[in-house]
Amino acid sequence: MNLHVETSGEGAPLLLIHGWGMHGGMWGGVTEQLAQHFQVLAVDLPGHGHSAGSGKWPVVSAEPHTHHSPLTTRYLDSIVDQLAEQFSDIGPLTVCGWSLGGQVALRWALRYPQQVNRLVLVSSTPCFVQQTDWPCAMAADTLAAFSASLQQDYLPTLRRFLALQVRGSEQERELLVTLRHSLLSRGEPDLAALQSGLEILRDCDLRVVLPEVVQPALVIAGERDTLTPLPASHYLAAQMPNARLATIRGAAHAPFLSHPDIFVKQLVGFLHG
Questions:
Q1: Which residues, other chains included, contact 125 with Cβ-Cβ below 8 Å and sequence gap of 6+?
Q2: What is the second-level CATH architecture of the domain 5-272?
Q3: What confidence tens digit (pLDDT) does each residue in 61-104 have?
């Protein structure tokens, strides 16, 4: 079953991949702005938005895994393989991934390099959870608490996650209202998809493979992002051989919503440069 995609505009294809628990409609007004320059493809990942009930997800295991685990790779690769198959006749693509979508984009660029010619990584990180040698990330117990509460009542958990995304941003309250209004506008996400997404956030560590991502890449970071702190974006841009960093002042984890004009200017300048 195909994933839901909304297409607008004409020109070179630009695929937008949303973050954990979200859907393609969360990109808001920047989709219309970008459609003035590109053919914009906003996808709902499997189990999210209008793709709820479609796509293939491995059965979630409660056992912890390292980033070397084939099970963790299977979660991420399940998404990537579906995207690669669905968009095999459209390409090469510029893939723009937000947050978890950035890890999907990175893995796609590595797994199917002939399909992905450029990357835009928004509020992304190669590793979401703190490690002994990686302090610029979420504490493991914070993510564990999210995972536990997800099992009991996942809608309040999603709403708390929205609050973390806008924390510290300019227009924080207005942004939170916008995100809450958009969250369920395409229905509720599948619980299995949410659980599998948290498994990726918990276990996936792409730091070691970043030098292999040779496509031109733009890393867009919010100066005030608390979920993927700015040092993580600096690292991400520094480790890829053809990447550069654009920092948006006053923005947190959703710079395309808080500072849409600056976001679009940076993205268009990169892709038309």
A1: 102, 103, 136, 137, 228, 232, 233, 236
A2: 3-Layer(aba) Sandwich (3.40)
A3: 444 444 444 444 678 988 999 999 999 999 799 999 999 999 99
Confidence of residue 222 (pLDDT cuts 50, 70, 90): very high
| Beta carbons of 123 and 220 less than 8 angstroms apart | yes
Q: How far apart are CA 104 and CA 118, in angstroms?
A: 14
Catalytic (active site) residue 77:
no
DSSP state string for 110-147: HH-TTTEEEEEEES--SBSB-BTTB-SSB-HHHHHHHH
> Given 190, 203, 205, 225, which residue is catalytic?
225
Residue 50 appears among annotated catalytic residues:
no
Check 169, 253, 258, 259 and give the catalytic one: 253
Q: Are 45 and 193 in contact (CB under 8 A)?
A: yes
Q: Determine the pLDDT at residue 73.
A: 61
Q: Is 153 a catalytic residue?
A: no
**What one-letter code names the amino acid at 258?**
S
The dihedral through the CA atoms of 111, 64, 66, 142 has a sign that is positive
Least confident of 135-139, 146-150, 168-172: 146-150
Instruction: Please say whether the dihedral angle defined by the alpha carbons of residues 235, 240, 241 and 244, taken in this order, is positive or negative.
Output: negative
Of the residues 99, 169, 196, 258, only one is catalytic, namely 99
Nearest one of 31, 49, 27 to 40, comparing CA atoms = 31
Q: Given pLDDT bands bounded at 50, 70 and 90, which one contains residue 236?
A: very high
Which amino acid appears at position 184 of this protein? L
